[in-house]
Amino acid sequence: MALAKMSVAELERFLRDEFPQAFSGDDITIESADGQTSLLRQRYSERMLRPGGTVSGPTLMALADFAMYVVLLSAIGPIGLAVTTNLNINFLRKGQPGQDVLAEARLLKLGKRLAVGEVNLLSGTSPDPIAHVTSTYSIPNV
Asked: Across the chain, which distance is largest between two alpha carbons, in Å?
């Protein structure tokens, strides 16, 4: 795969301008993105929890999808109309309240029209994933 076409700073500027509904606050940060992988952190908030005191599925799915979008943009450049065509998630264990959630995304295949990747979601400092995601994105002709 090629080197990154967008730096973290460029990704942040693009996302704040083009996708503010997902990246306008300070709860999600892009820690790294290199055209093949990305690491995002979602700071803990009680809004993340579902009844029973675990991190909610919608929180994890949204973070995983966003991490895939970030790694894809870092690989292809500022093509905002790339869209998710499939996302599959396996919840593996409880996400602990009070802990940030990390999303480690990796592109498995980058084609001209489709990109396939995976995301491991981690709670706090534990090395054991709380969820595993596979995802496919459609890349528009530009």
From this structure: 46
